[in-house]
């Protein structure tokens, strides 16, 4: 049936015309140029216009699509599971889809469009990319790491920035008004290869979302979150996503199957004025940490909170709040289920876990004890003075917390801390 679809698309495309408003009525070849060159509001107008097609050819195309999609069609409609992923219409009429297919074939070619629709009808996955603009990190040159992850700084020329962001940001009221265009310019964009599917279904099953995977397996943890955690641990700083979206690929866009808002942004975060730089050689470690994180997500209790709170302690939110966040991270790492002698336990558990000899353990215990004491006072409304000693103590305790997180990622279940300090642990 894919061959029949290709044949009828080849017959229709040369005869299709497109009424594109101020652009006029365009033949398919001129329409393709307008589609690829339009931006902002014009892009929405051009990409959603319905083609004018001779009735007999449109009826032939609709019949071919009904046959190809017969396993998913009820009362002339089929379910669009991609609406769960990209937004858009959850149920689509075959007759309307026929017009969308003509538009997409005019832009991308009948061969490609027939192949994609045939793949969806046979249940094959749809490839897409999760994208984000990150704060706290930059690169000298475009980088690529294992797992299908790529980094590139956005252009610094305002006229070029929007081509690398989700379309909704270019519209009045878009997210760029929240952050400011100047902050988007030159910021770091990351993209992650992913798959989802099956993409179409019976309308009665549309409530079941399609599986989504990336190179590390099912998305039990959001890929962008897992990536930011790993980047933060490798770079020893705070890396966060500001804007996230799914780049669904040309075929989905050309078919107008993703008419949702298309992006989300983190209101609690802001662009950092201090961006760390990651080197190509560090990406192997980022890849390894993501793998360990995904593999141990259910076994390593407390690690989620320890990582997120340690990351928050690395934000510039003032020393008082940084100490409080660090205290929560250390408690999640070492005091699960403990309710008494917390400062004593934390200092000793952490020292034994991280120190290789008596001198190191003694040093680490003092750092953890002092940091926990200051953080405990801060919890009870005492301000932490901005002194060199406190800054040094905070940095030392943050380093020990990071070291503990990385060590726990390499371990199985958490040690029995009471046994550990008596020499019964590993």
Cα-atom radius of gyration: 27 Å
Determine the mean pLDDT.
Answer: 86
In DSSP terms, counting alpha (H) and pi (I) runs of 4 or more, how many helices? 19
Distance between the termini: 63 Å
Structural class: alpha+beta
Largest sheet: 8 strands, antiparallel
Instruction: Identify the overall geometry.
Output: elongated
The percent of residues in helical segments reads 40-55%
Strand content: 15-25%
Q: Can you tell me the residue ranges where pLDDT is under 50 for at least 5 consecutive residues?
A: 172-178
**Number of beta-strand segments:** 17
Overview of the molecule:
The longest helix is centred in the C-terminal third of the chain and has 23 residues, at 388-410. Strands 7, 9, 10, 11, 13, 14, 15 and 16 form an eight-stranded antiparallel sheet that branches. 49% of the residues lie in helices and 16% in strands. A hairpin with a 2-residue loop joins strand 4 and strand 5 (77-80). The protein is built from 19 helices and 17 strands. It is of the alpha+beta class.
List keywords for this structure.
19 helices; single chain; elongated; 4-stranded antiparallel sheet; 426 residues; 8-stranded antiparallel sheet; alpha+beta
Summarize the structure.
By secondary structure, the chain is of the alpha+beta class.
Strand-helix topology:
Blueprint: H1 2-12, E1 17-19, E2 25-27, H2 28-37, H3 40-48, E3 51-52, H4 55-68, E4 73-74, E5 77-80, H5 83-86, E6 91-93, H6 94-108, H7 110-121, E7 126-135, E8 137-138, E9 143-145, E10 149-153, H8 158-161, H9 176-179, H10 181-184, E11 188-197, E12 200-201, E13 211-214, E14 217-218, H11 223-235, E15 240-247, H12 250-254, E16 263-265, E17 276-277, H13 283-295, H14 303-313, H15 319-334, H16 342-354, H17 358-379, H18 388-410, H19 417-421
Parallel strand pairs: 8-17
Antiparallel strand pairs: 1-2, 1-3, 4-5, 5-6, 5-12, 7-11, 7-15, 9-10, 10-11, 11-13, 13-14, 15-16
